[in-house]
């Protein structure tokens, strides 16, 4: 993390840990049913489609042992703002349809709360950064996503 954004490191690490936890929860649910996990179809991998279109930071960049710039952090958060809104809405739909099922309801509620938290922190951090002269980077990151981005994600940046 760049020194100016060091306070974000714990939030981003927590975010990553939550996503790993989500994978473990889904794997445990599959195991309980005697099923093996399989890779999802590539055309449903929204995050990788965005990466292939040059939107956001690449996974390779995120894995490099090289300090991110402040602009990288803004790009990362803007991209996550969109993907987390999508995740939050998808898991809320799952919660509506399966939240009261005894076998998966608790897992879905835990994941839904995590996704809502991810969306909230990405949005709050972007608002903070937008007032600290990063509004243009935020708009530039979100602009290519415009046709696929909920209006609430694209209208808030000064
Ligand atoms: Fe998430």
Describe the model:
With 158 residues, this protein is mainly alpha-helical. Helix content is 68%, strand content 0%. It contains six helices and no strands. It has helices spanning 9-32, 46-52, 59-63, 70-98, 105-142, 151-154. Helix 1 crosses helix 5 and helix 4 (70-98) runs antiparallel to helix 5 (105-142). The two termini are 25 Å apart. Fe (ii) ion (FE2) binds at residues 19, 84, 87, 115, 118.
In short:
By secondary structure, the protein is mainly α. Helix content is 68%, strand content 0%.
User: Count of DSSP helices?
Assistant: 6
Proportion of residues in β-strands: under 5%
**Which ligands are bound?**
fe (ii) ion
Low-confidence stretches: none
The description of the largest β-sheet is: none
Instruction: Assign the structural class, choosing from mainly alpha, mainly beta, alpha/beta, alpha+beta, or little secondary structure.
Output: mainly alpha
What attributes characterize this protein structure?
158 residues; mainly alpha; 6 helices; 68% helix; globular; binds fe (ii) ion
Please give the structural blueprint:
Blueprint: H1 9-32, H2 46-52, H3 59-63, H4 70-98, H5 105-142, H6 151-154
The structure holds fe (ii) ion.
The site of fe (ii) ion has 5 residues, from helix 4 and helix 5.
């Amino acid at each position: 993390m760049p020194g100016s954004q060091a306070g974000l490191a714990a939030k981003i690490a927590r975010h990553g840990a939550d996503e790993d936890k989500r994978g473990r929860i889904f794997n445990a649910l599959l195991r309980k049913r005697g099923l093996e996990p399989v890779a999802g179809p590539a055309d449903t991998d929204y995050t990788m489609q965005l990466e292939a279109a040059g939107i956001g930071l690449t996974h390779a960049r995120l894995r490099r042992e090289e300090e991110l710039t402040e602009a990288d952090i803004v790009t990362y958060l803007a991209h996550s703002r969109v993907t987390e809104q999508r995740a939050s809405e998808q898991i809320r739909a799952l919660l509506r349809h399966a939240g009261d099922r005894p076998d998966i309801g608790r897992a879905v509620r835990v994941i839904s709360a995590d996704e809502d938290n991810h969306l909230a922190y990405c949005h709050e951090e972007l608002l903070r950064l937008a007032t600290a002269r990063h509004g243009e980077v935020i708009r530039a990151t979100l602009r290519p996503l415009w046709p696929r981005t909920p209006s609430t994600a694209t209208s808030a940046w000064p």
